Amino acid sequence: MRREPQAMDCHWDGTTVRETWLRGLKIQLRYSAACRAVWGRIENGTVGDSVTIKDKGGREESATIRVDNDTYTRMLAVSADAPPDSVIICGQIPRYQESECSPLGAVLP
Questions:
Q1: What is d(CA 74, CA 61) in angstroms, rounded to the nearest whole number?
Q2: pLDDT for the residue 1
Q3: Between β-strands 15-22 and 76-77, what pairing exists: parallel, antiparallel or unpaired?
Q4: For 93, what's the count of Cα atoms within 13 Å in the CB-facing half-sphere?
Q5: C-alpha distances in angstroms, 38 versus 46, 67, 94, 98?
Q6: Which DSSP category does 74 fall into?
Q7: What is the pLDDT of residue 2?
Q8: Residue-by-residue DSSP string for 22-46
Q9: Taking the complete model, does pTM exceed 0.85, yes or no?
């Protein structure tokens, strides 16, 4: 099953738990308490920009802007053992070969 926030109606109670910026690209880690899941979202980007989330167990989801200026990843489940704040989120702008992660200083292996 594709765990997409909008398809599963998880976006209705979604809140931003962490946010960072890169050259105007808004990078957000979103959380739904009802779905007990997180997803990454980027806004204000261009085609080719991407977002990646990774939990401490090594599960990872990515999405790349294909049209317009935003996109979001599929969801990763969270729990007491792996709360939303343990998830790394990164936004990438390939044309500048730059990325920004949150928490600050985190990197995706």
A1: 6
A2: 40
A3: unpaired
A4: 18
A5: 23, 23, 24, 24
A6: P
A7: 55
A8: ETTEEEEEEEETTTTEEEEEEES--
A9: yes
CA-to-CA distance for 73 and 13, rounded, in angstroms? 17
The backbone region for 70, taken as left when phi is positive above 0, alpha when psi lies in -120 to 50, beta otherwise, is: beta
Q: Residues 31, 101, 3, 9: what is their CA dihedral angle, to the nearest 10 degrees?
A: 30
Name the residue with tokens 């990872």. Answer: 60
Averages of pLDDT over runs of 10 residues in the chain (109 residues) are 76 92 96 94 97 93 96 93 89 96 80
> Quick one: tokens of 96?
């500048």
DSSP string, 42-82: EES--TT-EEEEE-TTS-EEEEE--STT-EEPPPEE--SSS
Query: Which two tokens mark 28?
Result: 């957000």
Residue type, 101: C
Dihedral sign computed on CA atoms, order 27, 88, 103, 7: positive
